[in-house]
Amino acid sequence: MIKDYAIEQYLVQQGFTNLVYVDNTGDAFTKLLRGDIDLFPSDRISAEAALQSNGKTIWSVTPLMTIITDLVYFAFNKKIPDDVVADFQREIDKMKANGKLSALYQKYMNQQTDPAALQVYTEQYPPLTYRNSLR
Q1: Domain ranges of the chain
Q2: What are the E-state strand segments in 8-116?
Q3: Which residue among 17, 46, 80, 115 is the one 20 to 30 A from 88 at the CA level?
Q4: Residue 56: what pLDDT?
Q5: Closest Cα to residue 121, out of 81, 67, 78, 74?
Q6: How would DSSP label each residue in 70-94?
Q7: pLDDT digits (tens, 9 = 90+) for 47-95
């Protein structure tokens, strides 16, 4: 778990006390692939980049569960009037409702799921990947 990330705060609020902390996503996937940790919450884009830096692909891990969260966001300069931001939010909400946001996300982010899902990944083919190396 990366300290002070929103997902860490969420899991702590949910009562999790057995979190293992890492410096970054690459470190997390290294630990995951070695079997040092069992799960790591990540969006697919970050997971693919971290796995690629480890010489692996997304097929090296398995999405195990989904945690609902909003990871894609827009930031506005503080000088932007509140009514402009509210109009923008209304349009985003319309696009969510009619499916256009999901279609754009799939087209430009190259993913099948829209930005409301965070996957928790584990190694491929458990329990085989959990075997003790001394056996």
Answers
A1: 1-71+115-135, 72-114
A2: 40-42, 61-68
A3: 46
A4: 92
A5: 67
A6: --------TTS-HHHHHHHHHHHHH
A7: 888 999 889 998 899 888 777 654 566 778 888 898 998 898 888 889 8
